[in-house]
Amino acid sequence: ELPPSEFMQVADSTWLVLSVVSNGREAPGCQATGVTKIARSVIAPLAEHHVSVLMLSTYQTDFILVRERDLPVVIHTLAGEFDIYKEESGECVPVTCDDVSNGFLQPKPPASPTLHPVQSPQTRFCVLTVAPDTLPAIATMLIDVLFYSHSPPWDAAAGSQDLDSITFFSFSLIEGYISIVMDAETQKRFPSDLLLTSSTGELWRMVRIGGQPLGFDECGIVAQIAEPLAAADISAYYISTFNFDHALVPEEGIAEVIQLLQQRQEGGR
């Protein structure tokens, strides 16, 4: 419904959402397994079959977006590990490989993935949610932060931002559930009694992937981060964007994460 605009760029693909639950034999209503827990069972196999994914973590769960044209490959790749359902008229219906066998692409010879540079700003972040009925109380502040505060000039170079203090704010509204990622300083501008976080109230540090806009065609970017973190059993909150990918990890584990990723970079040279 958005009118065409010279300021809006639309990727030339239609994407579908995969929601991965921990007990695959129960269709809806199960707790998600998290980005690092699905690294080996979902993210890595899709990368090996040359399927590009967008990763979107929320306060409640994690979602993987795949291009609609890649769906046959996705189903054939994951059917051995998961029961797969599609939504039809609000109901979850089982999907079998036979339903989408036409057009399945055979795996290509594995290629050495591109290891993108990884940077870690000093900024500390909060992962929050808001009760939907309290959203109007912070709407004005949200609009100010999203559209008017700390906006970089349009002609700024993609990599010119000072990584000692990165500007990052994420707001998602999915099926009525709200998720917000903001830096700890910005959080102080909001009423503390309306922002809900985990009982530990932990802060997060960011690892940003990419030295230039990544686009959507390359495969294995999420796997570059998720696989080593999964091997070390480190949780991560992951958000893909057009320009960069962002993984948030608990603050106390940032040194170990940077060391792991540096070792992977050196091993891939």
UniProtKB/TrEMBL annotation:
Q: Which InterPro entries match?
A: ACT-like_dom_sf (IPR045865), CASTOR1_ACT-like (IPR049479), CASTOR_ACT_dom (IPR027795), CASTOR_fam (IPR026249), CASTOR_mTORC1 (IPR051719)
Alphabetized Pfam families for the sequence: ACT_7, CASTOR1_ACT-like
The alphabetical list of record keywords is: Cytoplasm, Phosphoprotein, Ubl conjugation
Per the record's keyword annotation, is Transcription included, yes or no?
no
Localization recorded for this chain is:
Cytoplasm, Cytosol
Chief localisation class: cytoplasm
Looking at the record, the residues that make up the Cytosolic arginine sensor for mTORC1 subunit 1/2 ACT-like domain are 116-199
CC terms in the record's Gene Ontology section: cytosol
What GO molecular functions are on record for this protein? arginine binding; identical protein binding
Where exactly are the transmembrane stretches of this chain? none
Report the domain of life of the source organism.
Eukaryota
- According to the entry, every stretch annotated as the CASTOR ACT domain falls at 11-78, 201-262
One Gene Ontology BP term is: negative regulation of TORC1 signaling
- UniProt subunit comment: Forms homodimers and heterodimers with CASTOR2. Interacts with the GATOR2 complex which is composed of MIOS, SEC13, SEH1L, WDR24 and WDR59; the interaction is negatively regulated by arginine. Interacts with TM4SF5; the interaction is positively regulated by leucine and is negatively regulated by arginine.
Per the record, the similarity remark reads: Belongs to the GATS family.
Q: What does this protein do?
A: Functions as an intracellular arginine sensor within the amino acid-sensing branch of the TORC1 signaling pathway. As a homodimer or a heterodimer with CASTOR2, binds and inhibits the GATOR subcomplex GATOR2 and thereby mTORC1. Binding of arginine to CASTOR1 allosterically disrupts the interaction of CASTOR1-containing dimers with GATOR2 which can in turn activate mTORC1 and the TORC1 signaling pathway.
Question: What is this protein identified as?
Answer: Cytosolic arginine sensor for mTORC1 subunit 1
